[in-house]
Amino acid sequence: MGKDDWLIAFAPITLISTGGFLATNYFHNRESTGDLDYLLEPQWASDNDVKRPLQNAMIRTANQLGFTEDWVNDDMAFFIPEQSRQDLFEMAHEQNIVLWEGPNLRVLAVPLEYALERKLRRIHNSRKHVKRGSDIVDVVAILRHLRMQNAGPLSREHIRTLNICSFEMPPDSATMSEIASAYRQEHDEEAFD
Length: 193
What we know:
Elements: H1 5-8, E1 13-18, H2 20-27, E2 36-40, H3 48-65, E3 72-73, H4 82-95, E4 98-101, E5 105-109, H5 112-125, H6 132-150, H7 156-160, H8 173-187
Parallel strand pairs: 1-5, 2-3
Antiparallel strand pairs: 1-2, 4-5
């Protein structure tokens, strides 16, 4: 990216990320991730003069590191309406969890409650999903962080009904009980009041 004069003019470009990159770089509850899911800053999201060179820089980097060309991808953008993207960026800036930063690129964590919302809904709605096990581990890590911020147990109903930007059904009581049990087993305390 630093070799592209066009991109340098807009640097640093900010992305927000979730999933495995959040798990490995912030929570350290996983050793690795298969990809980096990101959203590009709303001001550049529809600007192919910025998007295309950025994607090309990412592909070059992937090739140099021996990764697949889609190891850094914005697939999550398909599920997030434009206004929600702006809201997520504002919340991410306010939260200010920096996952990675260089002279030309900055990667912030998505709002943690949004990451939790997405994981809980995938656990509930895709019971046989290949990532179910890692999703539960990620949810336990996020809950631990939020519980520590809260200085005590969290509201189970508030967490269950998080709806920052999702279209799937919220988790049911059985899913929340499964998560509470996983949390209790890992941390020997209750996640929810």
